[in-house]
C-alpha cells in the first residue's frame, strides 16, 4: 500500500527565520532533515527541490498588492507595511523573506504537481503547512499559504475534488478562507477550541457559504484533550466525510503542536497519537483518493524533542518504511542536536504510549464528555448538509 514517495527539500528553506527568540526556529527543519537521513529514509524516497513559486502561482491565492508588500518588506525589512500583517511581533520582516517564503510554497506546489501527474503516489513537504496566511495578509508565522496554493494548483490542473485535513493544534483558517465558497474543496480542521487559542476561529458552525456550504468542517477540541479523545475525534469525523467526498487527491497538514510539550497550546497529545493519525491519513488516501497523498508539516514549537521525531515518522509512513515507535534514536543525530542547541535529544521514537487506545464513535456518545460534545456539534452542523446522518 505504500506506493512511490517523494520528499521535497532545499537547504535554503532554513532561511525562513524570524530571528532570535521567535518560536518558529528553523532548526526544527534542519534537525528533521537530519533525522530522516539518520534513519536512511532519504534513500527510499526521491529527494527533490522544486523551484520557488512564481508570481502567477502565488496569485492563485494571494492578492497582487500583498505579494508586492512582501517583496518590499523583503528588500527593506524596516519599511514593512504592518497593514499587511508584516513587521509584527508574530511575523517580523526579514531580508529575503519573499524569496524563502516562495521557495517553501514552491515545494508544496511541486509536491501537488508530482502527485497529480502520477510521478509519485505520495509527496511530503514538512517545511510547509503554513496555513494561516490570508489572501491579503501574513498571519500566525505564515507569509504565503503553501497548503492553499498546492490545492489551488491542483484545481488549475483539473482536479474536481480535493480534500484537505488539518490536524495542527491551530485552526486552518487561511485554507478555509481560500475555499470558503468552493464545493470542489473539502476542508476539515481539528484544533484546540477557539475560546482558548489563536486564531479564535474554527467554530463548528463555520461550514462554508454559497455553493461551498457544507464544505468547511471544524472540530473544536477542549483544552487538555489527550490521545484517546484526539484520535476518537479524528475517526468520528474524517473518514466518513472523506469516504463520501471521494477526493482525487488528499492533502494533509501535520502540525506537531498538538503535543503535550508544545509551549504555545494546551492539548495533551503524544508523538504516538500523531503517528497513529499519520498512518490513518495514509490509509484514507489509498482507500478513497487512489493513493494520491500530499503531506505537509505545520506548527510545532518543541523544536528538539517533538518536531523532528513527528515529521520523521511522517516521512517513514509516506515512504512505506514506518519507523517503529520503540526504535532508538541514532546516536549521531543526538550528538548533532547537542552541538546545535546544547539540548539533549530524545532517546526513542516514542513517548511510550504505543499502541494508542481509543474508542470508536459507534461505541456510544457520552453527553457528559466535553470531547463527545465537540464531535457531536461538528456532526450536527455539517453532516446533514452533505446528506449524512449526524
Topology of helices and strands:
Blueprint: E1 5-8, H1 27-38, E2 46-48, H2 55-58, H3 64-75, H4 97-117, E3 122-125, H5 146-156, E4 162-166, H6 173-178, E5 185-192, E6 216-221, H7 227-245, E7 249-253, H8 271-288, E8 293-296, H9 307-319, H10 331-341, H11 370-382
Parallel strand pairs: 1-2, 1-3, 3-8, 4-5, 4-7, 5-6, 7-8
Can you describe what's shown?
This protein has 390 residues and is of the alpha/beta class. It contains 11 helices and 8 strands. It has helices at 27-38, 55-58, 64-75, 97-117, 146-156, 173-178, 227-245, 271-288, 307-319, 331-341, 370-382, and strands at 5-8, 46-48, 122-125, 162-166, 185-192, 216-221, 249-253, 293-296. Strands 2-1-3-8-7-4-5-6 form an 8-stranded parallel β-sheet, sandwiched between helices. Helix 8 links the parallel strand 7 and strand 8. Helix 7 runs parallel beside helix 8 (271-288). The model has no long low-confidence stretch (mean pLDDT 97).
Amino acid at each position: 500500500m505504500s506506493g512511490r514517495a517523494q520528499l521535497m527539500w532545499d537547504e535554503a528553506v532554513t532561511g525562513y527565520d524570524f530571528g532570535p527568540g521567535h518560536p518558529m526556529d528553523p532548526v526544527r527543519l534542519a534537525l528533521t532533515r537530519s533525522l530522516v537521513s539518520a534513519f536512511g529514509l532519504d534513500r527510499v524516497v526521491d529527494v527533490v527541490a522544486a523551484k520557488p513559486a512564481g508570481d502567477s502561482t502565488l496569485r492563485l491565492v494571494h492578492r497582487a498588492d500583498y505579494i508586492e508588500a512582501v517583496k518590499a518588506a523583503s528588500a527593506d525589512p524596516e519599511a514593512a507595511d504592518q497593514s499587511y500583517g508584516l513587521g509584527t511581533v508574530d511575523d517580523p520582516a526579514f531580508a529575503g523573506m519573499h524569496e524563502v517564503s516562495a521557495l517553501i510554497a514552491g515545494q508544496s506546489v511541486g509536491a501537488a504537481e508530482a502527485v497529480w501527474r502520477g510521478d509519485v503516489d505520495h509527496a511530503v513537504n514538512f517545511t510547509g503547512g503554513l496555513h494561516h496566511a490570508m489572501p491579503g495578509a501574513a498571519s500566525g508565522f505564515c507569509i504565503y499559504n503553501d497548503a492553499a496554493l498546492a490545492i489551488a494548483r491542483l484545481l488549475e490542473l483539473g482536479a474536481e475534488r480535493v480534500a484537505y485535513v488539518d490536524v495542527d493544534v491551530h485552526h486552518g483558517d487561511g485554507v478555509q478562507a481560500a475555499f470558503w465558497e468552493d464545493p470542489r474543496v473539502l476542508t476539515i480542521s481539528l484544533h484546540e477550541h477557539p475560546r482558548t487559542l489563536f486564531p479564535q476561529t474554527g467554530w463548528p458552525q463555520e461550514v462554508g457559504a454559497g455553493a461551498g456550504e457544507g464544505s468547511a468542517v471544524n472540530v473544536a477540541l477542549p483544552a487538555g484533550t489527550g490521545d484517546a479523545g484526539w484520535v476518537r475525534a479524528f475517526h468520528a469525523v474524517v473518514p466518513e466525510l472523506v469516504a463520501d467526498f471521494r477526493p482525487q487527491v488528499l492533502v494533509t497538514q501535520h502540525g506537531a503542536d498538538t503535543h503535550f510539550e508544545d509551549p504555545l497550546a494546551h492539548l495533551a497529545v503524544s508523538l504516538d497519537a500523531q503517528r497513529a493519525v499519520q498512518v490513518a491519513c495514509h490509509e484514507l488516501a489509498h482507500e478513497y483518493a487512489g493513493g494520491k497523498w500530499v503531506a505537509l508539516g505545520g506548527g510545532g514549537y518543541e523544536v528538539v524533542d517533538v518536531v523532528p521525531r513527528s515529521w520523521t515518522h511522517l516521512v517513514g509512513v509516506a515512504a512505506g518504511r514506518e519507523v517503529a515507535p520503540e526504535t532508538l534514536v541514532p546516536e549521531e543525530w543526538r550528538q548533532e542536536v547537542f552541538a546545535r542547541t546544547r539540548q539533549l535529544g530524545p532517546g526513542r521514537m516514542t513517548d511510550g504510549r504505543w499502541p494508542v487506545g481509543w474508542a470508536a464513535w459507534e461505541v456510544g456518545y457520552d453527553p457528559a464528555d466535553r470531547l463527545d460534545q465537540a464531535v457531536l456539534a461538528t456532526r450536527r452542523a455539517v453532516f446533514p448538509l452533505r446528506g449524512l446522518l449526524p
